[in-house]
Amino acid sequence: MTAFVDVRDLSVDFKTRNGVVHAVRHVSFTLEKGRTLGIVGESGSGKSVTSYSLMRILDAAGVIAGGGISFDGVDIAQASERTMRDIRGREISMIFQNPRAALNPIRKVGHQIEDVLRQHVQADRSNVREKAIEALRAVRINNPEERYHSYPFELSGGMCQRIVIALALACRPQLLIADEPTTGLDVTTQKAVMDLVAELTRERGMAMILITHDLGLAAAYCDHLIVMKSGEVVETAPALELFRNPQHAYTKRLLRATPHGTGNVRDLLPEDAQPADAPPAPAPAAAVTPLLEVENLVKEYPLKADPTGVFRAVDGISFTVGRGESVGLVGESGCGKSTTSAMIMRLLDPTSGIIRFDGVDVGAVSAGKFASSPYRGRLQMVFQDATDSLNPRFTARRAIADPLLRLGARGDRRSMPRAALDARVAELAELCGLPAHLLDRFPHQLSGGQKARVGIARAIAVSPDLLVLDEPTAALDVSVQAVVLNLLVDLKEKLGMSYLFVSHDLAVVRLLCDRVIVMKGGRIVEEGGCAEVLEAPKQDYTRALIAAIPHPPL
Amino acid sequence: MTSSRGMIVLKRLAQAIPTLFGVIVVTFILTRALPGDPAAYFAGPAATPESIAQVRAALGLDKPLAAQFLRYVQDLATGDLGQSISTGQTVLSDIVTRLPASLELTLSALALSVAIAVPLGILAATRQGTFIDHLCRVVVTAGVSLPVFFTGLALVYVFYYQLGLAPAPIGRLDFAYISPPPVTGFFVIDALLAGDAETAGAAFGQLVLPAVTLAIFTLAPLARMTRAAMLQVLGSDFIRTARAAGLSRRQVLFSYAFRNALLPVITTFGMVFSFALGANVLVEKVFAWPGIGSYAVEALVVSDYAAVQGFVLVMAILFVVVNLLIDLSYTLIDPRVGFDG
Amino acid sequence: MDGTPQTSAPAPRASGGIGRHMLYVLRANPMTLLAFVLLTLFLVAAVLGPAIVPHDPLATNAVNALKPPSLSHWFGTDDLGRDVFSRVVVASRLDLAIALSAVALSFAAGSVLGSLAGFYGGWTDRIVSRVLDTLMAFPLFVLAMGIVAALGNSVGNIVLATAIVNLPFYARLSRTEVNIRREAGFVQAARLSGHSDISVLATQIFPNALPPMMVQISLNLGWAILNAAGLSFIGLGVRPPTPEWGIMVAEGARFIVSGEWWLALFPGAALMLAVFTFNMLGDGLRDIVDPRQRS
User: Fold this and answer.
1) Per the domain annotation, does B86 fall within a domain?
2) Phi and psi at residue A71, in whole multiples of 5°?
3) Do B225 and B327 have their domain in common?
4) Whole-prediction pTM
5) For residue A84, which residues of chain B lie inside 8 Å, CB to CB?
6) What is the distance in angstroms between the Cα of C114 and the nearest Cα belonging to chain A?
7) Does C273 have pLDDT greater than 60?
8) What is the mean pLDDT of chain C?
9) B193: how many CB neighbours lie within 10 A of its CB?
10) Of C266, C288, C276, nearest in space to C85 by CA
11) CB-based contact A136:A147 (threshold 8 Å)
12) Is A416 on the interface with C (CB under 8 A)?
């Protein structure tokens, strides 16, 4: 008697320009009905490819090169395409990340669900609409009769993911594969979506495979975990056991690198890579003199639908950042945190309000003219997407040198001699842990972590007083994030800068910041010391945010 | 929902007004940019200074430019495009008589082109990297590289001179036949309506070579765009969802992929129509097709400016209308139009 | 990671750079190689043409009229006894010159207009877009006819007309390419590094927008050649007896129905080959610039 899902020695190859890539190598696992399995790994680990082979929806370039997959007694690798089509959607379903793109943009969502129902003869002309609405109701969509007529672009990301789930579960399959289903969604939405998936699969006695990069998420929703690295399974264990007693070095490293609400930033690093010094203690809140003072800052945008109306992206916020202090600015997408940081950085003009930097009203100079302000060099920023923030035609060396060439070593616009420039770039690269031989590479030749280092080196090149960090690790794998966060802590200690750390992730903010500001709908809802806000939140919204962080069973 | 759709259609109709105004401004500038003194030109070669001044006053050329423009617009509003020197008729009546010939040629060529290009593009996209894909690529690149007048001549040489399969390239109908009673202005259809199969056959025979010539030219951009759009759509997330839901290959390909790929293809169609209207002029010259294109060429040769400018204006208005229709059909397919675009 | 699932395994990063990539493209697509070879041939013909042809392209010889291709006259002779081969080769200079100067003009004007519109948006964008829309509202060849008719029938005006009708392509493309990069991270970073608006546009955005525009230039050159030849085919611009491909086809057209095919075939074939070369080159460049966009 074989297991419900039985993957034996599975290997998947991809033909690429540079030869054959073994994306998945000798992977084996089993899954029984009603159980949940998490496949965890960083980018390039082969976790998605494994799940795609299960449904045989690999790209044309990918082939199952060895091993077998058995699903409910059916040999997936050998099954005919017709058999597979009957299995897909009716026996095995899949939900994806980026739910809006996963839906046909020009077809009503109700009709998309009907397509699946009719394909698998779950409904006929007379009752198909009724059944589609029922499927929408099952995923807790309000007014399903109305939503039936919606197009994906009219719905929020979370709502789109519910539709995708409705579509996947419409034919009552026995196995659901969820491929990073919450990546790109806000934490509160993420929790709602995952809770819904867990509830529905439990109710219907389905098996689920959750594919994710987030160990915490996998542990919170799965019985059993598989950790993958470079196409191979490095460890398989029940979720609790994996957390309590990880066996493989990679699992240990991954576990350490995942921020989970306790410990300090050094704990993220592997034990054998601990720096000698302990992380600096948080600055005493009372002792700091203000460096940045924001008063009643407002940013309005005209509404597209109604030119007389306005949308307040930032709605009258005030706060300060002290000299040498780290302040976290936290909120979900659309809360106005990025708009706020752009205004402080003088990339965007506020509608009203004051931005005072070192006692001077820097907001008085328009964003267009600020490039020539003496304060330009003192306000710098590290961007969210390291790839996007580097000019594809500049080498790492040229990118780091750019602010020095424009602003001079101290932001004083004095041109530097060539030798001094080279020496300074080398010094910055070393400071940021970027090996010197990488300096002559172009961005596309660098890894994500290396690009992040270049971005940081560029930002600190002119020795700024205030550094805004706009989700600097959001696009990085956790192990790389761990290293970059530590680098940021070290740099602050060495250079005495102030940080404004913009993030959606309270667990990360906690590691880096002295104080935290929580934003929602353009306003500040709560503010206070990090420990204070995280441990005893005063506002419901903050509580919801904290509750939504997936908690591993420690 | 339906009322907002209606609003979008109305809005799009309103957007055509400034475009139309721009077109009129440009044609006005073109008439005023005539080499030398237009008054001297219109007065004829034997004119005295007095007669030139007379003509200038008669044409309103002594007035300020704004007043001249106003008068130009008034003339257009009453359908007055001026007098053709070569035919002696009003430009408007010349164009009205000849327009059906051009439309018959252009529309049948485009229908042929779409009928070949779209399936070819879909085939090439679904069989990427195979023989048919390479064939599509070569055909498409060769097609767009062929000067239409050259293709036309080559077809005439092979099918008329060498094989004797096609009639002589002398217009819409051989002298042996009498034009069918005009209903639509399209000879083939009119002859069929009149029940005259023989004339219809002859008219069709005349139409084949020029239509094929024009179709070959317009094939390339359509096939290329169909292929590219299909490839892009087939690689997108929602196709993966549809496949993962077990939808049949036919449904994935046509009701999901093709309908989405149609959007850029429709946009390209506007550009193709522009090419076709231009190439039409050359094809008409090669096949002595009595449309407005050959009318404009004849007028150009004898410096009949009013006729040329009338032709340019009518073509532009035709093209504005075509673009309007294209945009409206786009609105019908894509629910997103008018919301975030 | 960029958020897309690993449907295709990440390929090892090619470190050989653009040279290796070009080699790959040329090997995968021999047509691009062919296009480079043909381009060289055309350039040689254009530069050295008059010096290397066997006969004077203008010398008439009534005895030798309408002779089919032979060893002494590879492409035969026309109705005035002129050597078609010599005329076809010599004509390449004029045809390429018209196309190149028209494309250069419209590229320069179009990319400046488009970049400014794409970068500044607002009123600049609205005005530029309105002008472009108006130009695009005309069927382009028809507009070119109208311009030449209005400005006067000369080679210079052919160039100008071709440049004007091509301008919207460049302007629209550069507008889009600049606009999508306007808010890019590296542009924001450059502002933080102290770059002014103009400096950002010129040193950061424009160089990145250039590759897709190079592709457009190549594809457009073919179209410009066709456009100019089409105008001379209907009797605009170049006057006989100057050798030019379009006019030679027009002259040869009269003899097609009586079977003297070579008069029109060879200049027509030269024209076709030139356009084909630039189109293939554009396709190849597209592959080199962006391997994903092969279409």
Assistant:
1) no
2) -125, 115
3) yes
4) 0.82
5) 246
6) 20
7) yes
8) 82
9) 14
10) C266
11) yes
12) no
